[in-house]
Design brief:
This protein is α/β, with parallel strands linked by helices. 30% of the residues lie in helices and 25% in strands.
Length: 212
């Protein structure tokens, strides 16, 4: 596929670019600066773009088979920029006639019980709440979209750089945790989950939790 990757310069974005390229996909990596470190491949092109501008998204997405988002708020940006991004990406894809989107979401909206979300638990860090709520708002907007085949893929409660094992589990809007209740996934394996879903499309119109 010819894939547009938004947020390509971030830690998840770089790993997703590498995973896509390893499987033979062509990747256009979008960042604010137009530079992406650590990627040296003839099938990779780095470009500058504004993911809050639907005109820019449409221009960049044109001619691509799918869009993968690893977007998140910058250090100096409010969490609410996520809702600007999701609105711009949805509108941009419509204008570009691209109908497949895999979006990196947040774990805060995943269920940990019949009526309890992760963000509502006592152990959820207070400093993570603004971004988690913005990610939930982004999902709510995306969930109303029917003309784009989207999947909202969330990591485990803890995601860090680590080993690429190729093993992970998924659940439909549920937090994935091990037998001890720990919820974790490496960024490398999360990138695999993103690209697997892009290729296989097994969870279209789904808020997908991932983890070990």
């Amino acid at each position: 596929m010819n894939v547009l990757l938004l947020g390509a310069s971030g830690r998840i974005g770089q790993r997703t670019a590498a995973e896509l390229l390893s499987r033979g996909h062509a990747v256009t990596g979008v960042s604010r600066s137009g530079t992406v470190e650590g990627i040296d491949d003839d099938e990779f092109v780095a470009v500058a773009g504004d993911a809050t501008d639907p005109d820019d998204v449409a221009r960049l997405a044109a001619g691509h088979d799918a869009v993968v988002s690893a977007l998140g708020p910058g250090e100096d940006e409010p969490a609410e920029v996520l809702t600007e991004m999701i609105d711009a990406v949805i509108e941009g894809l419509r204008r570009a006639a691209v109908d497949r989107l895999v979006w990196t979401g947040g774990a805060g909206g995943l269920r940990v019980g019949p009526e309890t979300l992760l963000i509502e638990t006592d152990d959820f860090p207070e400093e993570w709440v603004p971004v988690a709520r913005a990610a939930i708002d982004a999902y709510d907007r995306l969930s109303e979209v029917e003309d784009i085949e989207w999947t909202y893929v969330a990591p485990a409660a803890l995601i860090e750089p680590g080993e690429r094992t190729g093993e992970y589990r998924t659940a439909d809007r549920e937090l994935v945790a091990d037998d001890d209740g720990d919820s974790y996934i490496s960024m490398e394996d999360f990138a695999i989950a993103l690209v697997d879903e892009l290729e296989e499309a097994n969870a279209v119109y789904t808020y997908l939790g991932t983890g070990y």
